[in-house]
Specification:
Blueprint (H helix, E strand, L loop, with lengths): L4 H5 L13 H8 L3 H8 L7 H13 L6 H8 L4 E6 L8 H16 L3 E6 L3 H4 L4 H5 L5 E5 L8 H7 L3 E4 L10 E4 L1 H14 L5 E5 L5 H16 L9 E3 L5 H13 L7 E4 L2 H13 L9 E3 L16 E3 L2 H16 L8 E4 L2 E3 L13 H7 L1
Parallel strand pairs: 1-2, 1-3, 3-4, 4-5, 5-11, 6-7, 6-8, 8-9
Antiparallel strand pairs: 10-12
Helix pairs in contact: 2-3, 2-4, 3-4, 6-14, 10-11, 12-13
Length: 369
């Protein structure tokens, strides 16, 4: 006859395998078959709830954890998700740390471990990341890629290993992806400035090889078209996202040196925007009275600049969590509701653009130009 749960859990246990508890030990203490313990550990619906709870309580008391390596040898699964990066520096900065936080939350919830890998050389790129999947080190891939051109996309499809592109949107049902709505974000930022009366709106971009740059500029151009404002390529200055404040200041200095300078600047990241504000201050220009500024990302410091920065807020945690859930669904045989997902962004209005009344002369200056 089996004792109560409390009686059984308090029973002294002698562990095998040098102190590591086994299914056999748990079964002996619970006074059940080893197969019953296995069903409980694997959450089998065939086992009564009270029996399952009793066995799991014993396993927790004994600090038991499943041998995932052994399970993997049998199931041909690693229970590991691969996060594939083009370069390891992607782990730096608040945006991708929040993406990873979202991935981690969902992976832990579903019992998956995470392996982070990056291609660090051209030689590695030829076989990367297929060597990980073929060696059964990972079951599926979350691929973080910022470039407009996605390397190995056709090969990825042919490999038949589940993957999701993270923070990179393409309209291809055979290439699942989750990304922020960067086109919408660029449009929101430009529309805000246009509604304030600005017609000469400079843009400080990242590299044109980066998808976020092309998408946000595309949104900016959509807004110009909607307001019947011609696009002027001379109002665009290309910088580098990773150089942030420094390149933002350089690009802004070139824009503000124009014979007819812009009355507003849309910077494609908050760090770039910080550099724009620095360059304006060095020229004796006031923000927002002489120059309106909009950033992108809504990082923590943006609310604490002087003046606080108007910006486009993304949700990197949702990007990571949604992408990971999509991959888990694929691995568990479920079809995601959507193959290509855009995570909404929003405009956060602060003081760096001023009000409608404060910008009353901006439209006239644009028309005079």
């Amino acid at each position: 006859m089996r004792g109560t749960q409390d009686e059984i859990v308090s029973t002294p246990a002698v562990f095998e395998e040098h102190g590591r508890p086994t299914l056999k030990e748990i079964a002996r203490i619970a006074r059940v078959n080893i197969s019953t313990v296995s069903r409980a550990i694997n959450d089998s619906p065939l086992l009564p709830r009270d029996t399952k709870d009793m066995i799991l309580a014993i396993a927790e008391k004994m600090n038991y954890f499943p041998n995932s390596l052994a399970r993997g040898l049998v199931s041909q699964k690693s229970e590991t998700l691969g996060i594939i990066l083009p370069k390891i520096f992607f782990l730096q900065g608040p945006f991708f740390s929040q993406v990873l936080s979202g991935i981690e939350r969902i992976s832990v919830k579903h019992g998956f471990s995470i392996l982070i890998a990056s291609a660090t050389s051209k030689t590695a790129d030829r076989h990367f990341p297929f060597n990980l999947t073929r060696a059964r080190r990972i079951d599926g891939m979350l691929i973080i890629n910022e470039n407009r051109r996605i390397r190995n996309l056709n090969a990825l499809k042919q490999e038949r290993v589940p993957f999701v592109l993270v923070n990179r949107f393409i309209e291809d049902t055979n290439a699942p992806c989750v990304a922020a709505d960067d086109i919408g974000g660029g449009r929101m930022a430009a529309e805000h400035l246009l509604r304030l009366g600005h017609r000469r709106i400079g843009v400080v971009t990242g590299s044109h090889r980066v998808a976020a740059t092309t998408d946000r500029v595309a949104g900016y151009r959509q807004a110009l078209t909607a307001f019947d404002v011609p696009f002027d390529k001379n109002l665009l200055e290309a910088g580098l996202f990773q150089q942030g404040v420094e390149t933002g200041a350089r690009c802004a200095d070139r824009l503000l040196s124009r014979a007819t300078r812009p009355t507003a600047i849309f910077a494609l990241s908050d760090e770039l925007a910080m550099g724009v504000m620095q360059a304006a201050k060095e020229r004796g220009l006031r923000v927002p009275e002489d120059l309106a500024v909009v950033g992108y990302d809504n990082v923590t410091f943006s609310a604490h600049l002087s003046p606080p920065l108007t910006t486009i807020a993304q949700n990197p945690y949702a990007i990571g969590a949604t992408a990971c859930q999509m991959l888990v669904d694929m691995l568990e045989g479920r079809t995601p509701d959507q193959a290509n997902v855009l995570i909404p962004v929003r405009l956060v209005v602060r003081d760096s653009c001023g009000s409608q009344s404060a910008q009353g002369t901006a439209q006239q200056e644009g028309e005079d130009a």
